[in-house]
């Protein structure tokens, strides 16, 4: 019996083809593809008959959280709550969800209003993270928890394997090191900011009381660049001990 093509309910055939391709990258074929369309619909283009993805985002956040909490609990049965919490936070934070969304090209299929699209909405971290969570909820509603769990564990596999490194909070670690050596908290100085408002690029210098410092630059949130600068200074310190 030939495989049926899912009944994609979008009048734009090009869009329908893009959604099918995205579904393949995601690793889930939707029996109810209208759920995926809703998960990708931003408030800037929603209508009374085409709701946005905010409710799905709410649900997807919980599906993601339970799946990853269970995975961490099972992977290391000797881990304490204090050890699991930062690992969990590293896996579910917006930056991680947005990074995975980029890996599967979610931004390319987001449904955005013209103004949001013109302001770079397809690259915005918050929109990507929200869309990723909404898509996970769509899978859950379409095929149940086990289907959503399987997709999450596949997409998050590399990060689960390296969660200890990802969970290390460089800013906290640097502050603890400074305090243990009789210094005040590290100082973070923004030395440059370039790029448009929707995709800023920061350059941050972190300084210690003893004169040691390190720089980091790149796109993302200011906090993420501060974390990178802190990590660079920690690496410098560890290399000299």
From TrEMBL:
EC supergroup of this enzyme: hydrolase
Residues annotated as the enzyme's active site: 61, 133
UniProt catalytic activity: Endonucleolytic cleavage to 5'-phosphomonoester
Location(s) in or outside the cell: Cytoplasm
Pfam families (alphabetical): dsrm, Ribonucleas_3_3
Cofactor annotation: Mg(2+)
Annotated Gene Ontology cellular component terms: cytoplasm
EC number: 3.1.26.3
One annotated GO biological process: tRNA processing
List of residues binding Mg(2+): 57, 130, 133
Keywords of this entry: Cytoplasm, Endonuclease, Hydrolase, Magnesium, Metal-binding, mRNA processing, Nuclease, RNA-binding, rRNA processing, rRNA-binding, tRNA processing
Top-level taxon in the UniProt lineage: Bacteria
Biological role stated in the UniProt entry: Digests double-stranded RNA. Involved in the processing of primary rRNA transcript to yield the immediate precursors to the large and small rRNAs (23S and 16S). Processes some mRNAs, and tRNAs when they are encoded in the rRNA operon. Processes pre-crRNA and tracrRNA of type II CRISPR loci if present in the organism.
Subunit structure: Homodimer.
Protein name, entry field: Ribonuclease 3
Organism, as annotated: Paracoccus laeviglucosivorans
